[in-house]
Amino acid sequence: MVTVGDLPTQSAVDHVLSTTRNVRKRLDPTREVPRELIEDCLRVAMQAPIGSNALYPHFVVVTDPAKRTALAGFYKRAWDVYAPLPTSAANLHFDDPIHEAQQARVTASSAYLAEHIADVPVLVIPCISPRVDGMPMWVQACIWGSVLPQSWSFMLAARARGLASAWTQIHIQFEDEVAAVLGIDHAEVQQAAMIAVAYPRRDDFKPAYREPIQKYTHWDNW
Ligand SMILES: Cc1cc2nc3c(=O)[nH]c(=O)nc-3n(C[C@H](O)[C@H](O)[C@H](O)COP(=O)(O)O)c2cc1C
User: If you measure from the C-alpha of residue 168 to the centroid of ligand 1, how many angstroms do you get, rounded to a whole number?
Assistant: First the structure.
């Protein structure tokens, strides 16, 4: 019997899973991303699980420079609200030097994206309907759970095809204004993220520092 672990693709899959970083400074604004490549990644993304066949996600792919500039304005406003919050990436601090240095890089990189997101050639907004507002938590979980796996699969598929991307969500603070720019029916449709996509200026992505799984794994009891 052949198990997944025996397949020669395992290391390739693990490599993609371990090196799909949130890329911001290295997104190349000068290289056009072919439409077919984005469609190819979306086709793969659609293979991720959904809670029911009534919960197909939608993807709004934004390449129009004027619309990207409008979205970038809302993104920068969202960053300016988020960054000073005590819980923001900019204000997180850690006792261990590895974690602290990693956080400083994330903050600098996030601030850079907030200034430059208009230049990123493709912004993908995964959406789902119905909206989660006022729903019981378990229903909200099923709705978010029907769009976020697709979104991550999209980023993995993009990485496997030589693209890079950055997962963002802070624009949801201004979701209704973004909906108006993109013709999204805000009363019905929930935006889940804004994924910035481009070719990377350099492609030598490595696994990030993560704490040991033993600290976060609970066998049979928390
Ligand atoms: C739920 C969620 C929301 C996020 N929102 C943003 C965001 O709005 N802007 C941003 O620059 N990065 C955002 N990120 C990216 C995180 O900051 C990112 O995971 C972190 O930089 C670690 O990156 P790494 O996996 O490459 O080490 C988000 C990530 C997640 C999982």
Answer: 6
